[in-house]
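Sequence, please.
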């Protein structure tokens, strides 16, 4: 070969070789993310069909291990790895991550075929929907709206249907970005927002919140589907709180200036402002309440509990007396999992309408971490959302049985003060804001 041709060939190799190498190499995780799939084998994943996590937890460890071994063996017959892609033939058990997550972001790409049906279970719960948006046989159940919706939410519930059709044509890769804080779920498909901060319902138990933590599960049936670039980022509490508070913040007014107790009344001498937070003085208590009365409202705040800490939110208080009884209610603020509270009545744990309506447990962050809570008071109904999870949604007007048979004469109040019912522990509150409702 002439020297000139050899020289040109050498230049061509120098230019093209890096491009060939880059195209065949796995994509690097975006900043802050880490791989959930190693692009080589099924390590870190196991098999499971559409089976209730509640029922699975009821089995003995031996029975549970045997079931998972059986399901995983089935999964290995239908799942494989090709060129860094996770491939399923449209059959067999679903694939479940061994890792479980609480607040997190998930990135995942998929490519499927006509008439296929799939989805992504979050915290073991179905599902972010994936399907053939061109299949007229499923138009009646929403396929024409496209993928990305929380398909197992109740009819008409926020998030069930995607805002826009964002699917790409068959043969092209689609990209999901999914953010989940508590049960609050936001989905982008191909950089288009299709679900915004919707509450993902617990398919397995409609009366309970979504599980506090759980696995990512890749569902498949009806046709081949391929997955790649599966990355996860766990969201720290401070960021989670900021994201939750940012959503639909219009209409909220600050109740606390972060510096002093201007705008507050009651037991002001028993509270102090420390590092931008209202803190009940250790060994002190009493009701610190707003100067203004409220009827229907939503209040947002962050709180931090010391180990074993106890306080409460006074709702429609008259400004004196025990808010647990003379106010509409006192919503518990309590380190529920401290051993000293092991034998309380269910209506005494965090978020409960004291002595009247129990809240769901298991959604508090560890003592010393800031929690985010939103309370909505509308007529006689109260809803409490903790760290993105609805832990209480009840009507005090319907309560007829009380803890220790102690009546709550204040539950019929239609207006009153909002405040903190200190119980001698240094519980802290910050970023307190309120919105008046009709």
């Amino acid at each position: 070969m002439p020297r000139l041709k050899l020289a040109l060939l050498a230049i061509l190799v120098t230019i093209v070789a890096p491009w060939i190498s880059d195209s065949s190499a796995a994509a690097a995780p975006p900043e802050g993310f880490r791989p959930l799939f190693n692009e080589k084998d099924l390590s870190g994943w196991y098999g499971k069909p559409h089976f209730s996590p509640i029922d699975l937890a009821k089995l003995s460890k031996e029975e549970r291990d045997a079931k998972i071994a059986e399901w995983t063996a089935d999964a290995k017959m239908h799942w494989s790895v090709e060129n860094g892609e996770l491939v399923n033939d449209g059959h067999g058990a679903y694939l479940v991550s061994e890792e479980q997550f609480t607040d997190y972001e998930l990135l995942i790409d998929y490519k499927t075929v006509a008439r296929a049906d799939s989805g992504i279970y979050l915290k073991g719960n179905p599902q972010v929907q994936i399907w053939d948006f061109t299949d007229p046989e499923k138009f009646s159940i929403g396929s024409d709206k496209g993928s990305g919706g929380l398909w197992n939410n109740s009819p008409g519930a926020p998030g069930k249907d995607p805002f826009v059709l964002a699917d790409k044509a068959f043969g092209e890769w689609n990209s999901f970005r999914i953010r989940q804080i508590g049960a609050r779920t936001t989905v982008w498909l191909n950089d288009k927002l299709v679900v915004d901060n919707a509450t993902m319902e617990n398919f397995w138990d409609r009366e309970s919140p979504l599980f506090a933590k759980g696995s990512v599960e890749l569902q498949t049936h009806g046709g081949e589907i391929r997955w790649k670039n599966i990355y996860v980022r766990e969201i720290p509490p401070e960021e989670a709180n900021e994201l939750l508070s940012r959503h639909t913040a219009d209409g909220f007014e600050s109740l606390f200036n972060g510096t002093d107790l201007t705008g507050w009344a009651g037991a002001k001498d028993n509270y102090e402002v420390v590092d931008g937070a209202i803190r009940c003085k250790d060994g002190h208590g009493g009701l610190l309440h707003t100067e203004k009365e409220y009827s229907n409202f939503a209040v947002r705040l962050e709180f931090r509990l010391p180990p074993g800490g106890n306080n409460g939110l006074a709702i429609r208080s008259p400004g004196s007396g025990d808010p647990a009884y003379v106010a509409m209610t006192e919503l518990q603020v309590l380190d529920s999992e401290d051993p000293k509270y092991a034998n309380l009545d269910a209506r005494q744990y965090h978020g409960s309408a004291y002595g009247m309506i129990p809240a769901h447990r298991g959604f508090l962050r560890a003592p010393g971490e800031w929690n985010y809570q939103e309370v909505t008071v509308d007529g006689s109904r109260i809803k409490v959302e903790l760290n993105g999870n609805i832990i209480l949604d009840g009507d005090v007007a319907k309560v007829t049985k009380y803890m220790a048979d102690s009546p709550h004469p204040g539950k019929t109040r239609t207006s009153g003060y909002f405040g903190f019912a200190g119980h001698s522990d240094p519980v802290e509150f910050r970023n307190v804001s309120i919105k008046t409702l009709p």
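Confidence is low (pLDDT under 50) at residues 1-25.
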